[in-house]
């Protein structure tokens, strides 16, 4: 969390920068949870860039992602590892979690596709995914990797995330609705509730 000053006005912004390098990928993520949806994404996987852009814009997160990976093998390592780093950035930016709404649910419709996202910022990272996608490849993107991204993200962000596809025929629409719904529901859940400022929304006193 940083104290950002603009035009003489001081405001606390929940920001994190996380980098991770392995023999397979080299990734840096900068994330501002209290942004306006400004994004800059370069992963080498065009459709995945498009999905991360949708995630940031609809979550109103300022998001910068720079990733290089072993795309000559396939895009699996890059997509999964971006999920790891983005999840860690989310957890770090969230900080103490005091005053957050904690829960959220959002339906997103994109033409014929309809996807539900629900989240609990619980401290227990898990994904529950029931999204059927008719085709396996969109551009150069293996559609099964959407689930791998969200598994990695939910685990590292320490959130319980449900994604459920209710309707859809076009694979692009279905996956894009899932990313938009995830961004919107996370924005809803990590928002500060002024009625419980400084208090953890937990009967246990811990998240």
SSE diagram, text form:
Blueprint lengths: L1 E5 L2 E5 L1 E7 L3 E8 L6 E4 L3 H14 L2 E8 L6 H19 L8 E8 L2 E8 L5 E5 L6 E2 L2 E2 L2 H13 L2 E8 L3 H20 L17
Parallel strand pairs: 5-6, 9-12
Antiparallel strand pairs: 1-2, 3-4, 4-6, 7-8, 8-12, 10-11
Helix pairs in contact: 1-4, 2-3
Give the SSE order as H and E letters.
EEEEEHEHEEEEEHEH
Fourth-level CATH superfamily: Imidazole glycerol phosphate dehydratase, domain 1
Radius of gyration: 17 Å
Let me know the average pLDDT: 92
**Regarding CATH, which class?**
Alpha Beta
Task: Report the structural category.
Answer: alpha+beta
CATH topology: Ribosomal Protein S5, domain 2
In the predicted model, the low-confidence regions spanning at least 5 consecutive residues are: 1-11
Strand content: 25-35%
> Helix proportion of residues, in percent?
25-40%
How are the strands of the biggest sheet laid out side by side?
Answer: 3-4-6-5
Count of the separate structural domains: 1
What best-fitting shape do the alpha-carbon axes yield? globular
Continuous helix count: 4
Largest beta-sheet details: 4 strands, mixed
CATH architecture designation: 2-Layer Sandwich
How many strand elements? Answer: 12
Query: How widely separated are the two ends?
Result: 18 Å
């Amino acid at each position: 969390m940083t104290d950002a000053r603009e035009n003489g006005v001081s405001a606390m912004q929940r920001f994190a920068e996380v980098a991770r390098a392995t023999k397979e990928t080299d990734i840096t993520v900068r994330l501002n949870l209290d942004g306006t949806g400004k994004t800059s994404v370069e992963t080498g996987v065009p459709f995945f860039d498009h999905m991360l852009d949708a995630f940031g814009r609809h979550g109103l997160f300022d998001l910068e992602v720079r990733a290089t990976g072993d795309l000559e093998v396939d895009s699996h390592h890059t997509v999964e590892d971006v999920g790891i780093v983005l999840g860690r950035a989310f957890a770090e930016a969230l900080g103490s979690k005091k005053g957050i709404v904690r829960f959220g649910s959002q339906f997103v419709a994109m033409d014929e596709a309809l996807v539900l996202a629900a989240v609990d910022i619980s401290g227990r990272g898990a994904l529950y995914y029931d999204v059927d996608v008719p085709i396996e490849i969109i551009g150069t993107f293996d559609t099964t990797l959407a689930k791998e991204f969200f598994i990695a993200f939910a685990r590292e962000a320490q959130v319980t995330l449900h994604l459920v596809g209710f309707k859809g025929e076009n694979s692009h629409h279905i996956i894009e609705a899932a990313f938009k719904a995830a961004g919107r529901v996370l924005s809803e859940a990590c928002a500060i509730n002024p009625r419980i400022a400084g208090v953890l929304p937990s009967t246990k006193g811990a998240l």
